[in-house]
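Homework help thread (please don't just give me the answer)

Our assignment gives two proteins as sequence + structure token strings and asks us to describe the second one. The first is just a warm-up. Here they are:
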Amino acid sequence: GIIQYQTGAMNYLHEVKRLPAIAKEIWVQFHEKTPKRLKLIDYFIIFLAFLTILQLIYYTLIGRHPFEALLAGVFTSLGTMIFTIALRLHITEFRGPGSKEKKEEPEFDPKLSKSALAEYIIACMLLYLTALNYMRQPNSY
């Protein structure tokens, strides 16, 4: 009981101490092996996540009056982030360790990239039009 708990806690603390080294290795691998286009998409995803968190912090600390605007802003940034993640997954072809073709780095398929970008733009436009329409709804109370 107690000995197993202490051993488990020690293992956990040992793993926690390794987190900075693991994070650094992931960062180095990301910068060495990820193409510039994918880095741009990844940075945009991080920006959208930060924007969503910033909107929620603003809502909790400063203002609560235009609730429809908050919902539209949060859902728009989250939706755009999800569409961007889908775009990134759609335009890259990645073969993992268990696949028949051994490709360790993502590659672009130009034909898929064009159709994926068109779908992304249309989906984002529909999302933004829906959010705009939602913000224009008169209050029912």
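The one we have to describe:
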Amino acid sequence: MRDITIALICGCIFGIVDAAVNTQIYSLASVMWREATPQAFAISKFFHSLLSTVCMYYGSVLEIEWQLALLIAGAIISTVTFVIVERRFISSTSREERKADYVEME
């Protein structure tokens, strides 16, 4: 019973974090590529689907320890690259431009 409870709690945490990360990515992408938003989302979904396919394949080949190591490495790399892109975007636009973008979206 304890294993099921831990699995359900971990699943809820993963779902909440996934929703938060996707919200951040979508909001940043829609502001950064205003003229090409559909193309940006299509490319994002393509790579998301491609990596999901790769994960399904190696899920049956690798042991769980290696899967977790890949997950941790991917999480660190994606966090670092997201922070770099967001900081570059913030430094390249003025505060008034960013406020105008969010006012237009509402």
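TA reply:
I won't write it for you, but here's a hint about the kind of observation we're looking for: The chain has a mean pLDDT of 83.
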